[in-house]
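A student in our group prepared the protein record below, which I am reviewing. Thanks in advance; the entry in question is below.
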Amino acid sequence: MATVGLSQAVRSTPAGALPASMVPHPREELFSVLVVDDHPLLREAIAARLAQMGAGTVHEAATVAEARARAQATGPCDLAILDLGLPDGSGIELVTELRSHGWPRVVVLASSDDPYAVRSAFQAGAQAYLLKSASPVVVTDGVRRVLEGGVYADPSVAPVLATGTRVAGTDNTPRELSAREVEVLQLVADGQSNKEIGEELSLSALTVKSHLSRIGRKLGTGDRAQMVALAMRAGVIR
C-alpha cells in the first residue's frame, strides 16, 4: 500500500486554516490541484499533504471520465497529480490531454517503475514521475520541484531516464533510437502493419518503412520480430 502520508489522511482544507507550524514551505499564493486516483484513502492523503504545502483548492477524481469532467468544469489548475493505472482508461492519454488543454504542470504518481511507463509519462508531458511507495519527503520534494518550474524523477526510476532510449543491437552495442522510432517499434510490437502504423502516426507507409530501415541499420537486423525483442529487452517498449 502507498506510503504517501496515510497517517495524515484527512479531507483537505484551505492552507490558511492550518497552523503555521504545519506548513513547511508556505507559498505566497495558494495553488489549485486536481488529484486523480481510484483509491479514496490515497487521494485524501495526497490532498492533506498538498494543503500543508499551500494548496488552496484540491479537486478529486477517481477515473479518467471524472477527471475529464472536472477538468472541463474547472479549467486548467496549477497542478495535476494522477495515477497511470486508472480503471476506465489510460493515464498516459490523460496526461497528454491535460497538457494539450493548457494544464501547466502534471505529476504522475504511479505504482509501477516500468521503464516504458516512465518514459511514456515524460514524453506525454509530465514534469515528474513519483512512486506510490515513496516516502512523504520524496513526494513533497517532487511536487515542490514541479511547482517551482522544474522536473523530477523518483530516485529509483532516475537511472531509467539516464539510459535514454538506447537499445543494444545484435552486436551488443547500445544504439540511440529517436522518439519516433520508438513509437514505430511499439506499434510493430502491437501487431500493426506499415499502413496501419502510418495511419496511426499520420505518416505514409513509405515513411514508416524508412523508419524501420533506419532502426534495422542501428540494431543490426532487418527482422521485425528481432527488432521488437531487442527493444523490449531494453525496456524501451512494452
About this structure: The chain has two domains: 31-161, 179-234. The beta strands are 31-36, 55-61, 79-82, 85-86, 89-90, 106-110, 128-131, 152-153, 166-168, 174-176. The domain at 179-234 is CATH 1.10.10.10 (Arc Repressor Mutant, subunit A). The chain has a mean pLDDT of 84.
